[in-house]
Amino acid sequence: MNKADLRYRKTEKALTDSYIKLRTERKRPIRLTELCQEAMINKTTFYRHYGSMDRLHSAVCHKMIQEILSECESIHCLLSDTGTFCHEFCSVFAKHREQISAVFYDRYECIGVIEEELLKLYLSETESPVDRARIRFVIGGASRILAGTDLEMIETAILLIKKVLG
Fold first, then answer.
1. How far is the C-alpha of 48 from the C-alpha of 84, rounded, in Å?
2. Fewer Cβ atoms within 10 Å of its own Cβ: the N or the C terminal residue of the chain?
3. How many Cβ atoms sit within 10 Å of the Cβ of residue 17?
4. Any idea what DSSP says for residue 67?
């Protein structure tokens, strides 16, 4: 299967768009038959692309968070300009709150995906073990605290992150 092929990309888009639409409308797990009908594909095509509804769900969640994070102009500033990062991060996520709550099963699933995507951006093999631990700690804490929009919690998160980073 060639992922650069236009037909492949159109099917991927039809599947993810249909999944998001159905989750928004129904607020419950989607049956494969419903999804295939909405995307106008057959089950064999679905299985060639994802293999299971869980894999599709995970792919949609990661893609959504990647797209939301790409809207944060200060995405690479968590360690250097924590305040700007935290405020913009919360603002962008608040803008997409309805879409996020429709797709993710719960807040903790969303936090886990946010954390994974931020770690992909911030961790490399060049950091020392201590720096890797600090970055993991900061991102883990920030993901959990910043998933809300309470201004007092945001300010507390900023202070804690700055303290950990020293």
1. 43
2. C
3. 13
4. H
Average confidence (pLDDT) over 86-111: 85
Q: For residue 133, give the DSSP letter.
A: H
**Amino acid (1-letter code) at residue 108:** Y
Q: Would you list the domain boundaries of the chain? A: 6-51, 63-165
Say what the pLDDT of residue 113 is.
Answer: 92
What does the pLDDT read at residue 63? 93
The span from the CA of 19 to the CA of 56, in Å, is 8
Rounded-to-integer distance, Cα 56 and Cα 28, Å: 15
pLDDT of 79 reads 79
How much is the pLDDT for 129? 86
Query: Which is nearest to 136 in space by CA: 116, 156, 153, 166?
Result: 116
Give the CA distances from residue 155 to residues 47, 67, 79, 82, 110, in Å, rounded to whole numbers and listed in that order. 45, 25, 15, 10, 21
